Amino acid sequence: MSGLSLDATQLDRYSRHIIMDEVGPEGQKRLLDGRVLVVGAGGLGAPVVQYLAAAGVGELVVVDDDVVERSNLQRQVIHADADVGVPKAESAKAFVERLNPDVTVEAHETRLDRENAESLVADCDAVVDASDNFRTRYLVNDVARLAGVPVAHGAIYKFEGQATTLVPGGPCYRCLFPEAPEPGEVPDCATTGVLGVLPGVLGTIQATEAVKLLLGAGDPLSGRLLFYDALEMSFETVPYRQNPDCPVCGDDPIDSIERVEYTGGCGIAD
Amino acid sequence: MDVTVEVVGEGEETLAVDDDATYAELARAAGYSPHEVSVLVDGTPVPEDGTVTAERVTLLRLIKGG
């Protein structure tokens, strides 16, 4: 593949990518040919959509069933005051259309659930989990792993965040957190609050991982959980391993999500 | 027995637990519900009803916000 497959406008737009050996015109073409599922267009999803679109990731599939609320605007940077009341997936699509004509957005104004998850993940090169609930997180993990698609995971709480990348062949989310807590045991941002800039830090880490996965560059954040503390301004890396007893990626893995209960602990029926 | 507990993001402390204490009891002794943390030994979660045998564990809190 040569640089000639990019037009003059693209060569200009992506020149700071193309000049790097790790990207080059071939890498930029891979980004333009890439298809990434972004689950959630809220705090984490906003910077993910923003940076993946700016980078020229050609197809973004954005799934979110919420509408923009004024209380979102302190951190969800792709949505504006005029978007209050607009579905977030639609607002994300409009944002990208203003940012980069090379990128198409497939907007789904729905919640990712067991009925649509497999079709949404299929044909994607990577998934970014920017969801805000455990049911979706476990579902994303399970469906993506069964499909062999890597996931850039992120989660936030008040002043802290976690990120890790779940690559086929490496540990999955269940290797780290075998079961979800019961509803209400772990507070959400609406209850506790969240520093507005926090999802910007974690979301851009997730976007970085997605871009690296598409490029095949560097080392993914696999088998490592990155913990960020904004108050301490510190990062900590927690290593973790693939669990042989993991029902999704262990020695005796499931072959479908049919027996998984995405309620309570998101466990798998015997 | 004495167990060194590192809570990611919070630091570490050494706790004295009964010889037959479970990892769930260890998590509670550290101030957390066993359902809101993953107890890791050498990078792998251990069952919450398992008896504590490790001298050092890592507690990782589950967070869900997005």
Describe the structure.
The complex is a heterodimer of chains A (270) and B (66). Chain A is α/β, with parallel strands linked by helices. Chain A has one domain: NAD(P)-binding Rossmann-like Domain (Rossmann fold, 3-Layer(aba) Sandwich), CATH 3.40.50. Chain A has ten helices and eight strands. In chain A, helix 4 (45-55) links the parallel strand 1 and strand 2 (59-63). In chain A, helix 4 runs parallel beside helix 5 and helix 4 (45-55) crosses helix 10 (198-215). Chain B is mainly beta and 66 residues long. Chain B has a single domain, classed as Beta-grasp domain (Ubiquitin-like (UB roll), Roll). In chain B, 11% of the residues lie in helices and 38% in strands. Chain B is built from one helix and five strands. A five-stranded mixed β-sheet of chain B has the order 2-1-5-3-4, with helices on one face. In chain B, a hairpin with a 3-residue loop joins strand 1 and strand 2. Chains A and B meet through strand 5, strand 6, strand 7 and strand 8 of A and strand 4 and strand 5 of B. Chain A: It holds the Pfam family ThiF. Chain A: This is HesA/MoeB/ThiF family protein. Chain A: InterPro entries: ThiF/MoeB/HesA (IPR045886), ThiF_NAD_FAD-bd (IPR000594), Ubiquitin-activating_enz (IPR035985). Chain A: Residues 14-248 form the THIF-type NAD/FAD binding fold domain. Chain A: GO terms for molecular function: ATP binding; transferase activity.
Q: Which helices and strands, and how do they pair?
A:
The complex is a heterodimer of chains A (about 270) and B (about 70).
Chain A: H1 8-13, H2 15-18, H3 24-32, E1 35-39, H4 45-55, E2 59-63, H5 88-99, E3 104-108, H6 117-121, E4 126-129, H7 134-147, E5 151-157, E6 160-166, H8 173-176, H9 189-192, H10 198-215, E7 224-229, E8 234-239
Helix pairs in contact in A: 4-5, 4-10
Chain B: E1 2-7, E2 11-16, H1 23-29, E3 37-41, E4 44-45, E5 56-61
Parallel strand pairs in B: 1-5
Antiparallel strand pairs in B: 1-2, 3-4, 3-5
